[in-house]
Design a protein that fits this description.
- The structure is a single chain.
- It contains 15 helices and 14 strands.
- The protein has an 8-stranded parallel barrel with strand order 1-2-3-4-5-7-11-12, surrounded by 6 helices.
- β9 and β10 form a beta hairpin.
- The two termini are 21 Å apart.
Length: 482
Amino acid sequence: MYFKETKGFPKDFLWGSASAAYQVEGGWDADGKGVSNWDQFVRIPGKTFKATTGDKAVDHYHRYKEDVKLMAEMGLKTYRFSIAWTRIYPNGNGEVNEKGLEFYDNLINELLKYGIEPMVTVYHWDMPQALEDQYHGWESRKIVDDYVNYATTLFKRYGDRVKYWITMNEQNIFTGHGWLEGMHPPGKVDDMKTFYQVNHHANIAHAKSVIALKELYPEAKVGASFAYSPSYAYDRKPENAMAKADYDDLQNYYWMDAYAYGRYPRAAIQYLKSLGCAPVFEEGDEALMKKAASLIDFMGVNYYQTCVVEFNDINGVGSDHTMNNTGKKGTAKVQGVPGLYKKPQNEFLPTTDWDWTIDPMGIRMCCREITSRYDLPIVISENGLGAFDKLEDGQIHDPYRIDYLKRHIEELKKACDDGCRVLAYCTWSYTDLLSWLNGYQKRYGFVYVDREEDENSGTLNRYKKDSYYWYKKVIETNGEEL
């Protein structure tokens, strides 16, 4: 929609940035921390770029005060970070680790000292390996009680200081890559039946945790963060429009409907039943999901790219279970689901070196669709550009990142004019970090960290990029000076 004048961002808008424990903390076995599924998975040959691990990461565990001070100098309003389950419960259940609880006490207090709102992600993919060993983790219904116990421990310990909570980060990604693509723990391929049951267990864990939080702190704000890729039909052919509808039900609404409505899309469930892959409900599950849906306060959105959807016949392209993790542009392959859809490249949009489509308008599309379908406030919990940054004479010039963020913020401002209730915008990421499968060469941060793929290389010194100073001005002017 077109508006003659913009209202701009709300006065209390939370300009932020984000990270995940495994990607920044390091200290993988420090102070009683247990082993996570990622600590083990990265040691499987060929799973990560140049066998990179998060053992040291960017050493945020020991340098959090330095990092928070940099955030304060920038004027950051909120910092979204995750808590490592294995620091709190080294074995996933059983005895709690006080040293782990103390670390996050210290981090939260340091943020509050500078007036930075802590936004806590309960689960950002690093499950205790002990639970995988005990009962295969998310594949077992037992995970629900252990997850809720862990989450409730966090609520009780930090709820007096933490207002914003995110239960799950990108549930669609960690389950899809874990049980369909083989690229995340536990590394399984095309196990559709388990994939949908795993997601149901995660949804029940989310639901019970939301209910537990609201019983303890009714005024707390809670939601889940979904990796949202809005879709465009390839052209005007009806079969491509229907392919888009199939894609949306199975790849987008399947999760967001569960969070916001407490149910799965009817067409998606009918399709899964035809394959024998529909999740098994226990008595009371439907009521739990609906109750949690009535209590959530926002939809979290991790937005990076849109996709194009085209009809794919039953003998069409499937998934080859690969992705571009080298940064060699043009090496990603078209993926699809035979009989439903495939995702060709969008020739009208540029891409990153990792073949991710750059589509600033897509972030506005996310907000519009969520507002229209769910009428929920929105937290942009991730948005950013991974790129090859170079440190030269103590400086990092990253005009490409400034341009990327500028154009996305412009579209986000238009979403606010459209009536979307956007509460926060968190860039990914604050410092450079381990990019899961892509190593340390793919840099996202405002702050450059001197380290390479070799675990022992680099000083880990922090350097402010040009984008650091740019975002500082954006925050100072509440998004008016871009």
